[in-house]
Request: fold
Amino acid sequence: MAIVINRLEGLSVQTGIGVGVRVMKKNWLLFLEWIQKNIVYLLPIVTVGLIILLIFSFVVPKKVIDTYKTNTTEEENDKEYLIPLTETDTISYHMNTGTRPMMGIHIGLAKNGNTFTNGTIICNIYADESKENESEHIAYSNPISVNSYSLNQGEDVQYIYIPFQNYEQVKGDICIVFNFRPDGEPKEAYPGILANGREIKDAFTQVNEKRISGNIKTMYIYTHNTYPLVYDLRILVVLFIAACMTLSYHKSRRFVHEK
Amino acid sequence: MKNRLCKLPLWIKMIVVVVLSFGIAYFVEMMFFDAKRADETIELQAFPLAEQNAYSKTTQEDILEPLTQNEQNSVEINRENAKILAELNGTIYEEEKDDTLVEKDGKMYRKKINTIFTVTLPQASYVRKIHLQYRDMEEAGSYQLQGILDGAKVFEGDDGIISEKIDVSVVTLNKCIDEIIYSYKSTEAPVIENMQLTVVNIAATNWLRVLFMAISIILGAILLMAKMIFDKKPELVFAIFSLTLGSLLILCVGTNQIGFDEYAHATRAYEISFGSTIQTTESAMRMKANNLPIFHNTEERHLVEEYEEINNDFSWANITTQSRFITYSDRSYLPIAFFIKIGRALHMPFAWNMMFGKLGNLLAYTLLSYLAIKYAKSGKGIIAMLALMPNALFAAAGFTYDSIVNGFLLLAVVLTTNLMLEEEKKITWIQVLLVLGAYVAGSTAKPIYIVMALMLVFFSQKRFENKVQTWGFRAAIVALIGIMMYTIFFPPVSTSANYELVGNIAYAGDKRNQGTSVIGQLQYILGNPLAFTKLLLSSMFGNLLAYTTGMQKLFNYGYLGELSGVTTVIAEVILVSACLFAPKEERPVIAVKYKVLNIIMIFGMSALIWTSMYVSYTPVGSTTIEGVQARYFMPLFLPFCYCLFHKRWNCRLTTVVYRKILIGTFGFYNLYAIYTLALKQLNF
Reply:
């Protein structure tokens, strides 16, 4: 750097820039000298700072959201269809989230050309203790998450996102139950949920407690923690520790490296 | 007069050389390539293939075309990956049916219709090019073309493809013929009314050829005349050779995908260039899917670039988002991404923007190698030669992170060797930060190379202040290696992408190859340690022997092709001789201890590379190791050379001549490779 500045100075010696370059060079050399003089303190301080940052990065992770397109497309010979969701209907979707809590769900919703002002989709989640192929009742009394989606928003047909309240509890075998609450809408105005004939592992759909072939179209939303800086910080920490190992703390030998 | 010329400033001399070179090149182009021949009786004539007469006949037959091994592997891998994806997504796997695919006795065939057109020319004529046009075609079809003269076959072209994206394919003949046999294979019967064959004999100046000739003359002039810069600034000579040859290669290749998995690298760099909101145009989408049309001559190139430009409309681009944070493994793409971003800001056409991105990679590689040569205490000629190796230059002029890996590791090895040469001096903090920084930066994309940093552990205690610092330094190096190696199996969760796959070793294994499983392969190795050791050693030494004898070709330009085995042997002889008989100023003689350690490191690294490919890329229990390529060993060449230098034999060559031989050898190799593999194959 000093060489470059020297040259710049040489090139521009007859111009006003020359003065600026000389000042810049002087400041730069002073700065380098200051670093060299204080390196025995600076390097350990930087290392400790990096260690603190590393610990902080571990303790405060970044929460991100992931979308899993579980069932959004149709195979050959399969067709998308609409399951009507009237006031008296119940569509339930049984699935397993594994050990991770589920943050929300995207479902394909159609308003059947109606314009709603008050209607609401109710989406309650229950811990599912029923077994596949068994049509026993789930205890619909104690939902672990109560959610709703107002139909006065969005397009006629679109994937809507329903975030789950109390989502930390939504894990393992769950049953997501969809109902329609008209809230004064005319009887003939009701929405529908998009479905197709696709079978999904560890999941099935029931309409009015009868299992259908295929499933509703969904995307699962999960959340998890990421640690974006941890990799860089732990490498930098080790790198600076290695550099610290070359410092001389004997006053008489401190500048021996420079010579 | 001679004295007056000598007194001219260097920059004026350079301009004169450049202008003269272009003048000579243009003259040669005009005189030898564009001149009309006496036997060109046809200038331009179209033959609509629907017309059935005495001059044009058509026949059709059903055939079963066997799939190539690559195509068959691709079908099987796609099936296996679909199964894994279904399992991951929790869906039930259903095999996608392809009615045109026939499986017989373990082999796969594609049902096709072969339409053969026989066109008789009005009279025998020299034919430069034939344009095969198929308007409004729906899917690509393959073809083969034969040229006949007096009943004898005088030309047989390779299998070509007419892409549905550009509707035309052009074949370069440069033969005198009187009949053309054109067989077109497609899964559906072609619409013959839309097909046409045109004989074209219109000469046009090939500017890339002119550029190639001019660059050859300029580099030749530098080799012959520029004594001073070879002596004082060999790094500058390297930079001139690297930038001119690399840029020429970039220009010749255009948007053709010619590197291993180049589309994947290009896609990642393209995505990074956008920051958080990615706008993927149709052209970029096709690049991502490795589905852009490819060209084989200037006419096709023009059509391909036109197609790419039409489909590079951002007004209907696909919009997706990504994390702003660039994960460690993607940082090697930053030079490419930065230049793509600049190109986009300058409203460059798609093809030029992609080439500009490659230029970013080339500049980064050239800069790193320049620094390595500049700061090497000795042996600059060898370093420049290795940095100009055809494989290295090819990587630098393409979409890949290999150039960053090679560049940083070259710098790291040079800085390590500098430390080895200063045995009496203490190691400074800035040296540690620079050398370790170079190792880390070179290993982020391929963490396995961090093992090379283990050499630093063997510096003696007198290089440090005391015992505690010595062992502390060693422990830090080992920890660094451990941290980076750990990421091979358990990558850090930096972003949301592939969360399920990250750290889930059950899914680890290269998805480009069928039957891979990291856990399965490790279990196999642990269960059969002797068999694996035998396989590893036989693979390593078998390959070493094959490369040494030239049976296996070392120098290649990816899918474009390779230089013959003779060039490998010549280069090896020159390289070894250059190390054994180097002039005094070009001898970085390191202590015997470090030579032995270098040999052990090279052996260990080679074993690691082979083992890693066995674990991640080879099907479980296989009796061969797949996927190992010569380019993986490039960072090890320089440490190997350092083992050969000694003080005993003296060389009578001056440093300047010595450097000219070394840089000139690989300069010539690259020129030859660019001409035969890139210019002639793609731009004639």
User: Anything to note?
Assistant: The interface with chain A takes residues 86-87, 89-92, 94, 96-97, 323, 325, 327-328, 426-429, 431-433, 436-437, 440, 464-465, 469-470, 472-473, 476-477, 479-480, 483-484, 487, 492-496, 499 of chain B (CB under 8 Å). Residues 292 and 667 of chain B are 31 Å apart (CA to CA). Residues 655-683 of chain B form the longest helix (29 residues). Confidence is low (pLDDT under 50) at residues 495-504 of chain B.
